[in-house]
Amino acid sequence: MVFSFTWHPPVYQAPRRIDLNKTTAVWPYHRKKLLVMNNIDDDKKNLRRRMMALRKDMAAGHANPPANIATLLAGQFSNSFWRGKKISFYLPIGSELSPNSLLTMLQNLGATICLPAVVAPATPLVFRAYNPGDKLQPEPFSTMAPMADKPEITPDIMFVPLLAFDEKKFRLGYGGGFYDRTIAKLLSAVSAAAPLITIGLAWDGQKIDNVPVGEFDKPLDCILTERKFYS
Fold it and tell me: Exposure pattern of 113-139 as b/e (b: 16+ CB <10 Å)?
């Protein structure tokens, strides 16, 4: 049997153009989503620089902690509310609004106080028991934390530092994600009967129109400033 064969030159086909902005494109991540995420990250970085300088100016013109901040908080809750609560604070760095007067007041009302400690990069914080005057150990980012042999505590209420906040109580942090991961972890473990309460502490001038919000950003429950309690 004889086969006949006729050769034809190959027909050139232009490469298929894939529109990366279409959500139907077959890629691990959609280009559109990546662009949005990158824009939010850039917005946050730029805003952090501006708010860090602005907060420094605010703190320079105020007593820290503000004299009335404990009174503002006391007006929102009864004294008995704090009794037996496990409350995390932070030791202020630089121009952060100091929670020291709140710590003293709530400890006197029967609360158990703890402070955060960094155990590893990109992981949730742990909290260790703290009394004023306790020995502290140095932590990353120029912070201090209770010694590693102090008992670990899971807080019911967290006082959180921040660089900026908005009316919806979204918080701009420092970019490490420690508090975001920690709050997410604690929220997944708490029950409806004993919900976690998160309270941001800031100068009132740190309030902006809109904090850039990413996919995993969650608002705080309240914000306390030297002028107002936002709830």
Answer: bbbbbbeeeeebbbbbebeeeeebeeb
Which residues is 230 bridged to in the sheet?
A: 223
Residue 27: HSE in the Cβ half-sphere, 13 Å Cα cutoff: 14
**Is the bond leading into 66 cis (omega within 30 degrees of zero)?**
no
Calpha distance 120→113 (Å, rounded):
22
Q: Are 159 and 89 in contact (CB under 8 A)?
A: yes
On whether the CB atoms of residues 70 and 108 are closer than 8 A, the answer is no
pLDDT digits (tens, 9 = 90+) for 94-131: 999 999 999 999 999 999 999 999 999 899 999 999 99
Per-residue pLDDT at 192? 65
Cα 181 to chain centroid distance, Å, stands at 8
Q: Can you tell me which residue has the tokens 């996919």?
A: 215
The phi-psi region of residue 153 (left if phi > 0; otherwise alpha if psi is between -120 and 50; otherwise beta) is: beta
Q: How far is CA 90 from CA 27, 74, 209, 213, in A?
A: 43, 19, 26, 24
Question: Residue 60 and residue 62: Cα distance in Å, rounded?
Answer: 6
pTM value is 0.82
Residue 2 has φ and ψ, to the nearest 5°, of: -115, 125
